[in-house]
Amino acid sequence: MNYTIEELQDRIKTIANLPTLPDIASRLMRIVNSPTASADMVAAVVSQDVSLSAKVLRLANSAFYGVPRSINTLNNAVIILGFKIIQTMVLSLTVFDMFIDNSENGKGAAFDRDEFWRHSLRCGVVSRLLAHKRKRSLAIDPEEAFCAGLLHDIGKVVMEQYLNTDLRRALRYASDNNLSCFEAEKEALGYTHCDVASWLTGSWSLPSEIEQPLVCHHEPDEATISADSVMICHIADILSKIKDGDEAAKTEAVEKLEGKAKLLGLTKHNLIEIIEEIPAEMERASMFISR
Ligand SMILES: [Fe+2]
Ligand SMILES: [Fe+2]
User: Fold this and answer.
1) Which residues place a Cβ less than 5 A from the ion ligand 1?
2) Ligand minimally distant from the alpha carbon of residue 194
3) How far is the CA of 34 from the centre of ligand 2 (A)?
4) 100-291, which class in CATH?
5) How far is the CA of 64 from the centre of ligand 1 (A)?
6) pLDDT of amino acid 289
7) 3-class DSSP state for residue 8?
8) What would the DSSP string read from start to end of 158-227?
9) What is the pLDDT of residues 65-104, one digit of tens each?
10) What is the pTM of this model?
11) How far is the CA of 152 from the centre of ligand 2 (A)?
12) How much distance in Å is there from the Cα of 183 to the middle of ligand 2?
């Protein structure tokens, strides 16, 4: 990688100008973490964005959360689902909205956006299933796991929008050398979509259980904090690439991941169960990425 001084200056400028977290999401994060937070306060923040409120209500009533009775107001949504679910829901929705490509399916885009978000949602869904199945003693919040999984590759979308020439260079390098995107970014650019995620979210004050998986999901051993959340995302990323019904890929992935799953208190059998639950769970979660 031989960048000219101008090219490097361009990149530094780009990094300094990466988008900040939408105001509603950052306010909500502050409120939820304060000991005096109330359902009224949380609902009041969300209600400032009409389309976000409508989406939160639709999701709150969706099969994904499985609430048996209907939820008609934001206040009720906060009381019934709890602060944590509302917080991760709003974070997922606002970040997704920041990077949704409104052009006709990303005409001229470096990669297929629909495919990208389907993979992201699948990783979120699998992360949530993994978190649910863990031993109680190793408890991890399933909603945070979902949010981290949904956003795990966000660095790629940032590259596509802000560092497009680099992303294209890395993708070409990956296909010429039969490498994964992550390896190609390392070799061809000297930085990866995980570095970009850390530059992006550095000032967002996300909980480390959400931020660390975005930064370390390809190298879980590098995580110094929230290692379990990172491992969940790492395993989910691999499992989510298995096509429904591909038995050979399923067996191979389960064998490969057995040791890592054990670190989370999960067995091979748990992984197989989770893979089988993916299609139905994807159906229930689909509203997250519908425009
Ligand atoms: Fe990735
Ligand atoms: Fe991924």
Assistant:
1) 153
2) 1
3) 33
4) mainly alpha
5) 25
6) 87
7) helix
8) HHHHHSHHHHHHHHHHHHHHT--HHHHHHHHHS--HHHHHHHHHTTS---HHHHHHHHHTT-GGG-SSSH
9) 999 999 999 999 999 999 999 999 999 999 998 887 666 5
10) 0.93
11) 7
12) 13
